[in-house]
Amino acid sequence: MKFFIFLYSFFDSWFSFAFILWILASWVLGSFNRILASWFLFSWFSPYIRQPKKNSYMRKILTALLFFSLFIPCLLEAQNYSNYVQQTERINAIAKNYPQLAKVRSLTKTAGGKDIWQITIGSGNTESKPAIVIVGGTEGNYLLGTELAIGFAENLLQSGTTDSIKALLNKTTFYVFPNMSPDAMEQYFAPLKYERQGNATSTDDDRDGKNNEDGFEDLDGNGKITWMRIESPIGDYRTHPDDPRVLIKADNSKGEKGKYLLMAEGSDNDKDGSFNEDGEGGVWFNKNFTYKHPSFTTGSGEFAVSENETRALLDYLFEQFNVYAVVSYGSNNNLSTPVSFNSQAASAPITAGWLEPDTKVNAMVSELYNKSVNQKDAPKATANGGDFYSWAYFHYGRYSFSTPGWWVPKSKPDTTKKEKAFSVEDAGANYLRWSASEGITNNFTEWKSVQHPDFPGQKVEVGGIDPFVLITPPYKLVADLVKKNSTFLVKLASYQPELDITNIKTEKLSDGLTRITLEVINKGALASHSKLGERSYWVKRINVKVNTSATQSIISGKKIQLLNSLEGYSSQKLSWLIKGSGKLTIEAGSPTTGSKTIDVTL
Ligand SMILES: [Ca+2]
Ligand SMILES: [Ca+2]
Ligand SMILES: [Ca+2]
Ligand SMILES: [Ca+2]
After folding, report:
1. pTM exceeds 0.70 for this model
2. CB within 10 Å: which end of the chain, N or C, has fewer?
3. How far is the centre of ligand 1, averaged over its atoms, from the C-alpha of 224 (Å)?
4. Is 476 exposed, middle or buried (0-12, 13-18, 19+ CB in 10 A)?
């Protein structure tokens, strides 16, 4: 108490004293909103503060502190990825700032009690317009994807008053799900940092009857889970010939001899012979889907779509017939490099490859992506089954596009440092060289010996490349990546299938008959729906309907007909023979193309 009274003696009043404490507390908590509230209160009560009783310095100090407390947290926040709370704030700010164009709702809650947010962007009746789905956080360790998704929504709406974006939002709806793995992603911000994919569902990953019994241990106490290497005559890893910090696999067939066993940092808590085999983190979003569900493997869940977030997303998407493309951010990649056509896989009894017309669309969209984002040398990625990207094409029948959003660029040797090209290509060695050239620090833990109870008498060292850094760019690169990805998404929307009816002709024939011919055209670059989608109930085809009056009858041609997928920039000719006179209407449309109605006078 004496201390507080001592502190108070420097202030004009109890109010200003309490106010300063409040500002400091807000500062420490780092909440921008609270500081903003302080600012308003400060302005409100400023007459009291402006009447110094003792010390006029205090006013200056108050003002200076207030000034810094306003700006420093902004700067701090701008320099790092948003955690769940900050993402929630940003998402809700979107709804508040753009009520005409954006709606936010919680789709469901995860096992960890975190909301899965959905942002619907568009004007007017959004359900009736062709739509693109954008999904971030398909994998809990791919933080960039969540930033790309939220950043896209923010960027798009910021320019929502420009004519081109206004026109776009009149025509296209965006369903944005910024983060499907919030439970897992929080591990990036936790006191113990490691790459996690599983949500908060408690699981028994190794089926030994105990849940979460063997997670990682931070053996060197640096707050991160890195690697441990154990010197062993049967080790299968050796040091990289050009960078001894990095371990690479020894190729026995080439006579190379390993020196180390390599595993993630931790110990075998339950002494079952496996290390860190069942830690916190249950079901992986990107392993819980129906296409090639990897049953009985870590993170796949007891059965496909077992989790709240996967179930809610699927239930929702299946009812959105207007969705024509799904863009997701994660390890899968068919944007910088498109899938190639494999006729055997595509014609297998259970389709396992993209159909040929769809691979052509993929190639076209990939070209668009590379023009917008322009990053070469992407690492090879294969979908592992149960993943969202594969589900969106094979089971949802929509064009599915995925990208990691960023990868470590291929580094060039620095000749001024007498560096040479690597004799062995390796992602880790490449990363360390690239990050050094960029001046990025705090991304590698020096190897350090530790005493390890599971390896008595053996040399065990902990260190290596830090978690996240290989797939998560330094935050200073994020703004530019968001801009480029947003450009790509806007351009993708300009490829949207769009239906029109042209070349309408009526010919009077004898006996009161009229022949009507017309062409249903797709003015967009994308097909009206994917070729694979033709096999799915959940993908609606173009429906052409002739509405006749009671005095008219259709002699030849169908009153209602469904068209197969109409390729980009293509048309289909239709004709009818109608008996009678007066007016009739012909209507053509589908949820992914929009519709068009014409009047015809017989
Ligand atoms: Ca277990
Ligand atoms: Ca550690
Ligand atoms: Ca164990
Ligand atoms: Ca175990």
Report:
1. yes
2. N
3. 23
4. exposed
